[in-house]
Design a protein that fits this description.
Length: 389
């Protein structure tokens, strides 16, 4: 199963960190019957927020640094628990910030780029169709597999990091052609308008699909922003790492005996109702997964024409925030009572310690996690609805 070079890694000839990482990959390979290790072109590492990994995670990373861990391939980070530049203004507790900075330092020492985004594909990190990668964040995994046609299993934080350190991953699951097949066809019989519609569709289908891969028919067109929300919502409600949309995604492989289900306007409305508490939000959060420049522009246009009735954040990558600052979108958003927030998101920051109880979102994924991970009641709906409720 291992090449000579990989065997050396496993035997500890390339240092303790490499050995420890290769042991993780070999153990996974055995569990999933992988025939070999395959080279990967990038890794995306989750487990970045202090809120999600805590002290144990920080110690694990610092230990790897002490053992000399260095990545061998381009490696990127998922969102952290705070905006690295605005954390004081945003009232992130000091104790949290201190630990968060230590986590980012540890990753940085390993050679990992502090992209801190779950949508690396919006900042030019776009693996090609058929390219093997090891990405960890569930929505990024769904997007890379489904919209870009790249190949990744849904890695955990440690396995993505191990793959980054060794430059390989075990060959199983979604790296293999025979497994990239949908076993449920979803015939969409309603009109899908905005991001919230795609989020509500994804949330409902994720629950029905339960880890099966869905193939959608009846979706006439979809932007990358809509597809990212569809995938993120299915990943959140049903751990779905791959989906197809007829005539839109690069692959569309359906099993002969695939089950067929319909999705109607009635189900769409029910899914929205299930996610929405109907309350007025104290804070509206946009950008789950992280917003594209087009989404930031859309929000800026909307709030410039009419000031929202509550505080709001647009969560995005540092790179796109800088672009939004340069173009002037951030200023428009700030003048309307909002903030473009980089490096973090509404779910992985300590929202529950920042005085918020009711948060609005147009994302099915954020709506699913805000109650459990941030103790929030959720206002779910399209932008116009939640910003002016
Ligand atoms: Fe990204 Fe946070 Fe949503 S990591 S997918 S914005 S929950």
């Amino acid at each position: 199963m291992l090449t000579k070079e990989q065997q050396k890694m496993y035997d500890g000839e390339l240092g303790e960190a490499v050995q420890q990482s290769m042991e993780i990959l070999v153990a996974m390979g055995k569990i999933y019957n992988a025939d070999k290790m395959i080279p990967i072109t990038s890794a995306q590492v989750s487990g970045v927020s202090y809120k999600t990994i805590g002290d144990a995670g920080l110690e694990y990373l610092q230990d790897l640094v002490k053992k000399g861990a260095k990545t061998r391939i381009p490696t990127f980070l998922n969102p952290a628990g705070m905006d690295i530049e605005q954390w004081k203004e945003m009232k992130i507790p000091e104790d949290f910030a201190k630990k968060q900075i230590q986590i980012l330092d540890a990753y940085s020492k390993m050679g990992i780029m502090k992209t801190c985004t779950c949508a690396p594909y919006f900042i030019g990190i776009r693996p090609k169709e058929g390219e093997h990668i090891a990405w960890a964040e569930s929505s990024a995994v769904a997007f890379a597999n489904s919209v870009l046609g790249a190949r990744t299993n849904r890695e955990g934080g440690p396995s993505a990091l191990a793959a980054a350190i060794c430059g390989v991953t075990p060959n199983y699951g979604l790296h293999l052609n025979e497994n990239r097949v949908a076993t449920v066809i979803v015939n969409v019989q309603c009109k899908l308008g905005d991001i919230a519609d795609f989020g509500a569709l994804g949330f409902a289908i994720g629950k029905l699909a339960k880890r099966k891969y869905p193939a959608f028919t009846g979706i006439k067109s979809a932007t990358e922003e809509q597809l990212k929300v569809l995938g993120a919502s299915m990943a959140a409600s049903g751990s779905v790492p791959l989906f197809f949309v007829e005539n839109i995604t690069p692959e569309y492989n359906v099993a002969e005996d695939a089950e067929e289900i319909s999705f109607t306007e009635f189900q769409l409305n029910n899914s929205k109702k299930e996610l929405d508490s109907k309350e007025k939000p104290q804070l509206v959060t946009i950008g789950c997964p992280h917003a594209s420049l087009e989404e930031i522009r859309e929000v800026a246009n909307m709030v410039e024409a009419r000031k929202p009735t509550c505080e709001f954040w647009v969560c995005t990558s540092r790179k796109l925030k800088e672009e939004a600052d340069r173009i002037g979108y951030s200023k428009i958003i700030e003048e309307a009572g909002g903030r473009v927030v980089a490096d973090t998101c509404m779910v992985v920051c300590p929202l529950e310690r920042m005085g918020y109880n009711v948060t609005g979102t147009n994302s099915g994924k954020a709506a699913k996690y805000l109650p459990s991970l941030c103790k929030q009641r959720v206002a779910f709906g399209k932008l116009e609805d939640i910003l002016y409720r």
